[in-house]
Amino acid sequence: MILLAELREALLVEDQLVLAMQPAVELSTGAPIGAEALVRWHHPSRGLLAPDAFIEVVEHSDLVGPFSRYILDLALRIVSDWARGGLIMPVAVNLSARNLLEPELPQMVAAALARYGVPADRLVLEITETVMMDESPVIEEVLIGLRALGVRIAVDDFGTGYSSLTLLTRFQVDEVKVDRAFVSQMGHSPEAMAIVKTTVDLGRALGLRVVAEGVETAEQRATLIGMGCTAAQGYHFSPPLFPDKANAALVGLA
Ligand code: G
Ligand code: G
Ligand code: MN
Ligand code: NA
């Protein structure tokens, strides 16, 4: 069991929570178009933990706000370091559903951007589609506030939430990330193929960037290009990498 007290401690000391960066690329060329920040925890006694070992604990605690603030700071620090080294690359940060229920979120994000001198268009915030199914008017307000800053919004794990496609028109979002479960099944399941194709078409019709997640093979890449999908993430291009390696990969892939 991960103790809340240990997480509280991790937010107070340096270098326990770290970010792995996974490049997102343009499908046709493989050129990087950004990177997703994926948190890892160097736990003092358990070693390196992936998010599924602790994110739920965070999300059910009073740490959900402080945690996201901390991750946002880490991500923006990396982006500002990149810019100082001549690498202009946006970062995508995952938010918890509960973060969107916080009316102060846009102000918090604006302050973080200012602190690191990062322009708003270099930040993408990933939300899950189930967030959009929530009835709370606060969520709509918060999303409008974030977009007014110039931050981009991506809908993560798209296709898994049983949401209606019209949610994409009701909420102003910029990007849709097709869940890797569908991408990995494209070769075996006509249904998965249809879901990916429909999402790509819908994205194009609505002027949204569609990012296919979990691309592992050249065949999946070719299939996606054939569908008119333009962007992807996945082991075929690069796994999540810690910043020193991510740096080299982002420059190298470019
Ligand atoms: O590689 P991976 O094990 O990193 O990520 C597993 C899941 O954890 C993904 O669904 C991802 O969205 C989520 N995740 C990764 N980093 C963060 C984070 O900083 N905050 C939140 N809320 N979720 C994250
Ligand atoms: O839900 P979200 O997209 O935020 O989660 C990203 C998760 O997917 C992370 O756990 C990341 O390590 C993982 N991931 C990234 N690329 C691939 C891939 O090509 N294959 C698989 N199986 N997982 C991947
Ligand atoms: Mn994500
Ligand atoms: Na996903």
Automatic annotation (TrEMBL):
Name of this protein: EAL domain-containing protein (Putative c-di-GMP-specific phosphodiesterase class I)
Residues of the full protein shown: 197 to 450 of 455
Species classification: Bacteria, Bacillati, Actinomycetota, Actinomycetes, Micromonosporales
Domain named EAL: residues: 1-254
Source superkingdom: Bacteria
GO terms for MF: cyclic-guanylate-specific phosphodiesterase activity
